[in-house]
Amino acid sequence: MSEQQAKLSKSEAKTYRVQGFTCANCAAKFENNVKSLPGVQDAKVNFGASKITVWGTTTIEELEKAGAFENLKVREDKEKAVKREPFWKQKENIKVYISAVLLVISWFLGKQYGEEHIFATIGYAAAILIGGYSLFIKGFKNLVRLNFDMNTLMTVAILGAAAIGEWGEGATVVILFAISEALERYSMDKARQSIESLMDIAPKEALIRRGNEEMMVPVDDIRSLRALFHG
């Protein structure tokens, strides 16, 4: 392929909206996964706007497969977002409620019968497993790959607490971490909804003046026009 053909091919960019980012590291991992897809020449994630621009050819199914580690959902840039359930109804938060209830029950049993009582230990263990399931899956996968992130470190810390018999502390750490992730998802979703609302009311066309000539062009075409005028 000639240099000119390569530039032309790389200029064929398409932007998608991404739902489900929980951290900047996850966005970077998704970007790298997309770059490795067949037919993709380059990809760039805009974490703040929750978008990805892809140079090359791919499908939404392939993009979602690249983001399966975080259960990311991808849609066309112009496609309206599916209205999400209220924060307290979202199914990913239900496990936090269950774990919190188990923690309180186990704490009460520990006060009544002693921290070493079998029922208290079982309750704490159940709270750890339910509240930290997704955390452990990510943590173990990253540990195998020697990729140490927050999920890996939290997994090691919780397993260490369980190993020395501090089940209550381990369950508390799991629930606090799960609550922090839930609040982070909520705040990020609200911020992105605000950004999307601003983008929806932004002008779709711009007035371009070159010398004595004026023209109305789509905002998305301004960058390509600048490249054309500047050679």
From TrEMBL:
Transmembrane segments: 94-110, 122-140, 152-179
Keyword annotations from UniProtKB, A to Z: ATP-binding, Cell membrane, Membrane, Metal-binding, Nucleotide-binding, Phosphoprotein, Translocase, Transmembrane, Transmembrane helix
GO cellular component, one term: plasma membrane
InterPro entries: Cation_Transport_ATPase_IB (IPR051014), Heavy-metal-associated_CS (IPR017969), HMA_dom (IPR006121), HMA_dom_sf (IPR036163), P-typ_ATPase_IB (IPR027256)
Protein localization: Cell membrane
Domain of life of the source: Bacteria
Single GO molecular function: ATP binding
Primary location class: membrane
Occurrences of domain HMA (ranges): 12-75
Topology in the lipid bilayer: Multi-pass membrane protein
Family according to the record: Belongs to the cation transport ATPase (P-type) (TC 3.A.3) family. Type IB subfamily.
Protein name: HMA domain-containing protein
Species the sequence originates in: Parageobacillus galactosidasius
